Amino acid sequence: MALWRAYQRALTVHPWKVQFLTAGSLMGLGDIISQQLVERRGLREHQTGRTLTMVSVGCGFVDYPDALITNYYLWPAVQLANFYLVPLHYRLAVVQCVAVLWNSYLSWKAHRL
Question: What does UniProt give as the signal peptide span (predicted)?
């Protein structure tokens, strides 16, 4: 919880910087999950350039989770549950967890052979 509180403080003090880094990190994490868990590439076959590209794309969408997911049916359902069932201080975490799953799917879909 200390890490979460530190993140919340940083978000309050430097909202754009933290959102920028969060968006890039979530895209990178999604690509790592896609390559390692979905595609089962292993560390030797991991495409670092691909991960860095996804990080760059994520950093380009600072408004990120809303910008990429709004057009899909998943997002309204997640937000509905988030607003009605999740306490306010955990809502950002829920959105970020869903974003990691979505980023994994996007990475897999964009890089299928």
Answer: none
Q: 97: helix, coil or strand?
A: helix
Summarize the chain as % helix, strand, coil (round to 5). 85, 0, 15
**Residue 51: closest CA among 10, 108, 9, 8:** 108
Instruction: Write the pLDDT tens digit of every residue in 11-34.
Output: 889 988 888 888 889 889 999 999
Q: For residue 68, give the nearest of 54, 80, 78, 58 by alpha carbon.
A: 58
73 φ/ψ angles, rounded to the nearest 5 degrees: -65, -25
